[in-house]
Amino acid sequence: MRIRQITLYHVRIPMVVPFSTSFGDMYEKECVIVELKDEEGISGYGELEAFPLPDYIEEFLVAAKFIIEKVMLPQMNSWEFSHPSEFQSRFSWIRGNEMAKAAVEAGLWDIYAKKTNRSLQETLGGEGKFLDVGVSLGIQKNPAELVARVKDCIGQGYKRIKVKIKPDHDIAYIAAVREAFPEVLLMADANSAYTSADFDRLKELDRFQLTMIEQPFSIRDFTLHARLQKQIQTLVCLDENIRSVEDVEQAYQMKSCRAINLKMARVGGHTEALKIVDFCAKNGLLVWCGGMLEAGIGRAHNLALASRKEFGFPGDISATDRYFNEDIIEEEFKLKNGRLAVPQKTGIGVEISKKKIEKFIDSKQVIKLG
Ligand code: OSB
Ligand code: MG
Predict the structure, then answer these.
(1) 3-117+352-368 falls under which CATH superfamily?
(2) Is 141 tagged catalytic?
(3) How far apart are CA 66 and CA 70, in angstroms?
(4) 164 counts as catalytic
(5) Domain-by-domain residue ranges, the chain?
(6) Looking at ligand 1, which residue's alpha carbon is closest to its atom 9?
(7) Residue 265: closest CA among 249, 250, 276
(8) Is the N end or the C end of the chain the one with fewer CB atoms within 10 Å?
(9) How far is the CA of 347 from the centre of ligand 1 (A)?
(10) Please, are residues 32 and 61 in contact by the beta-carbon 8 Å criterion?
(11) Interhelix angle for 171-180 vs 143-156, to 10°?
């Protein structure tokens, strides 16, 4: 296979409610939809999930877009591949920049699935028509407000609730939710907001039967996470730290965590994600699918991957209406009994809506390859 043309659609989609984390507030989903076209005119789609600022991890949107446009694409001139996994070795010389790589690789997987007449789900080894999913709630003004939002999500059928925390917006909030909903699958995500000075605070969270605490410490730390995991019953989960299967191995060797939030965008694509899934399954780490407030293309990719049976826990893959009034694909992901349908058509199984993209577009570039 050969890629002949690439289109980059830079879009900004307003969010239904702002999403507040320890690193900032998000009012819209700004991302780049990558459309690859091969020599037979088949299109494959990926979504660049890097955020506008380097506040979640180091990678950020214009830098990632530059890497795709000015660094990777010129090197895809006359590049032939027979399987999408070849992309990883082709671009292994580019350090980091996992989200840029994941966006392009995702398009190749979509084309490959379409050419072999299979769904992406089947291509990635997933199964089942529906998937249990959870919801991730941003930091709220006060505990009562959080309880109200949790109640609403449980009412809608979500199977698991994640609550964003930061110092001073943690124990009272989690205590209130746990008191109101003693049975709900509940977890907390700190997005690296704590330091070694906060150990006692974090240990206090151990009494709320949380299923896990996600990434309390800094994005390169394995040592403090290991020290915490030794002192609490609750699983420590790593998110920002994990960019490759080697990072998962290091976390495992150092006992830094017992669970992995897997975002294919953060680890450079499906090829690396599959290696991580395999490593976790073999070594008894709980692996589950995280989210980046994806638009429709990214969500379809996540659903296909998360339908692999190794994913033992409902992911951060909520229905479209939890994020947006309108998305950039024709379909809407709707919650049914706390589950989302995994697209079953060939490829990613969803269609870009050029009309909807038009509403949200910032800029569009078409690049032809030789
Ligand atoms: O840490 O998992 C995270 C959103 C933006 C940035 C980081 C994270 C998140 C989420 C939202 O928790 C998950 C989702 O619903 O997409
Ligand atoms: Mg997280």
Answers:
(1) Enolase-like, N-terminal domain (3.30.390.10)
(2) no
(3) 5
(4) yes
(5) 3-117+352-368, 122-341
(6) 292
(7) 276
(8) C
(9) 25
(10) yes
(11) 40
Q: Tokens for 131?
A: 């998937």
CA of 211 to the centre of ligand 2 (A): 14
- Ligand 1 atom nearest residue 318's Cα: 15
**Residue showing tokens 């700190």:** 190
**What is the per-residue pLDDT across 287-301, written as a single tens digit (0 to 9) for each?**
999 999 999 999 999
Burial 282-304, CB ≥16 within 10 A → b, else e: eeebbbbbbbbbbbbbbbbbbbb
3-state secondary structure of 270: helix
Name the residue type at position 253.
Q
Other CB atoms within 10 A of residue 155 CB: 8
Backbone Cα Rg of the chain: 20
For residue range 59-99, list pLDDT tens digits in order. Answer: 999 999 999 999 999 999 989 999 999 999 999 999 999 99
CATH number for the domain running over 122-341: 3.20.20.120
Which residues does a 6 A CB cutoff place in the pocket of ligand 1? 56, 136, 189, 191, 239, 290-294, 316, 318
